[in-house]
Amino acid sequence: MEWKSFWEGSKDLSTLALVIRAIILYIALIVATRMMGHRQVGILSGHNYLVAAGIVSLAAVRMVSPESSLISGIVIVFVYAGVNVLLSYLDTKWPRGIDRQPTVLMQGGRLLKANLLDCHVTLDNLLGQLRLKGAHNLSEIDTIVLEPYGKISVVKKPEALPVTRKQMNLPQQPAALPTILIYDGVIDEVNLHQLGLDHKWLLTKLGEQGITSPQDVFLVMLETNGTVYISV
C-alpha cells in the first residue's frame, strides 16, 4: 500500500485501503462528536444542525470517493467541531445574538396568527406536534411556545390538568424507575437484593403466571407502581 496515495487519495486505491480509510474517518467523527458534547447530539440550535449536516456530507464524500484526501477530510471534521464548540460557548454567553429565541404561538388560549406565519408553522404542523404531546384539544391549552430547536412546549389550562396525589391528599410515593429482575433467563441478583427481595418472592410471582423456572422467562421487571411485568 502506497501511504501517500492512501492519505491524499487515488483512483487506484484497493478495497482494503478504502475500508481502512472509512474506519479512520469514522473514528474521527466519533472523537469530534464527543468533543462537541451532548448539545450536538440533540441538535439544539441552528448552527448545531448545520455542523451535523456538513460533517455527514463531508464524511460521505470521503468514504465513497477514493480520490479525495483523507487528511483534508479529518482536518475539516475537527475544524467544524471546533467552530461548533466556539459557537455553543458564545451561545451560552450571548444567546440573543447567536441563536434563535422561543416564539409564542398561542397565549391565553388564542392562536397568534402573525407568529405562526413568521415561523412558517402550518395548522397541520401544529396539530401534529400537539398530538405528540398528548394535547388533542386546542380549548384545553393556554400557551404554546415554539422552542429554538424546533419542538413545541405546551402549557394546559388549570382545569385540563390531571389531578395529582397532593391535590387528593394522598400519601406521596418516592420517585423511582422500573427495575429489571430477570433478563433473558438470568436473574439480576444486584437489583433483586437492592430492592430487599429474594428468590422465593420472585419464584412465587413467576408461579402465579404458571412459570416454574426463571430460564423460561425473557423479561421480568418491577414497575414503579408495584406491578411485576413478565414477558416469556
TrEMBL record:
Domain of life: Bacteria
Keyword Cell inner membrane tagged: no
InterPro entries in UniProt: DUF421, UPF0702_alpha/beta_dom_sf
Membrane-crossing residue ranges in chain numbering: 13-32, 44-64, 70-90
Pfam families in the record: DUF421 (PF04239)
Sorted UniProt keywords: Cell membrane, Membrane, Transmembrane, Transmembrane helix
Membrane topology: Multi-pass membrane protein
Keyword RNA-binding: no
Location of this chain's protein in the cell: Cell membrane
Residue span, YetF C-terminal domain: 98-221
Sequence similarity: Belongs to the UPF0702 family.
Name of the molecule in the record: DUF421 domain-containing protein
Origin species: Pelosinus baikalensis
Lineage, broadest ranks: Bacteria, Bacillati, Bacillota, Negativicutes, Selenomonadales
